[in-house]
Amino acid sequence: MDILTGMYKRFASRRMSMPQNNVRQADVLEGAEVLENVNGSAPGQFIDTVVGRHRKIIILLPGPPGELKPLYEAECRPRLVATLPERHMAKRMLRMALIPESQVDARTAPIYKQYSDVESTILAGSGEIQLHFVCAKASDAEAQARVDELAERVEAEMGEAVFSSHGESLEEVVLLMLGLRHMTLAAAESCTGGLLAQRLTAVPGSSRYFLGGAVVYADKLKTTFADVPEEMVRTKGPVSDAVAKALAEGIRKKTGASVGVAITGIAGPGPGAPGPDEEKPIGLVYVAISFADSGKTKVVELNLTGDRERIRLWASQHALEQLRRSLLERV
Prior knowledge:
By secondary structure, the chain is an alpha+beta fold.
């Protein structure tokens, strides 16, 4: 059936006039096979040609997913299966937190460059490095074995820096580790304003291990919700290692959690909050982690850069990574 005639009939069956700009949907590239689109007015096109010494297959499909997907499955996939050799694709992803991309590449490139049949990609962002490995082979088993071999060698090289070998997020891993150790977690957040809690509670089932916590943005609430002494806040400053330690211990005891984590810092963009001795810079953040069973609390000082949102995000990332590292020590 003529494409344009079919388009007019389609609109007429719906008692609609076809707009003139729809006419261009009937244009067909020279040498193309027309693919009937039963879900829309624009047809697809399939071109199988030779350019120089290379065979080229070009497929043109309408954009709306409700048209594109059925048309691909009904018309394109059978043609590709009949035309191309059978190939199966396998993927793996390794994730690492708070490591420079250049350092990861320097250590892993000598490994992944030995695998010319595996496509390796490094992505960096939001305090995380991702290594993606993709391989296509004649069978699923062969492709999977190849990417698994590479991933395992890279994981052996990077050691505990790898927090996920199958794509899990850092918050998922932390919650899994808490569960394996029969521990619960509570958080007291100042500059992150609940971002850490939001990341944890976005994971389904997190309520089994994350009890909750408090956003202690105002100094008074640090005392009210986490029992931080007012005198300590006044003399040491709300952004200090002493207050971070007291927040982690206080929220842990208030909630009855096994582990308490605290974040306090200066995210900006205004001037830093004055400390007892000197002005404290934007990006100064303290993360504290307190364990009930040992009674020990660890405090880490961070000096982050960037705008307000970046500092808040990286502070939450550091808190999760410190939690993961601390839990690793408690096998």
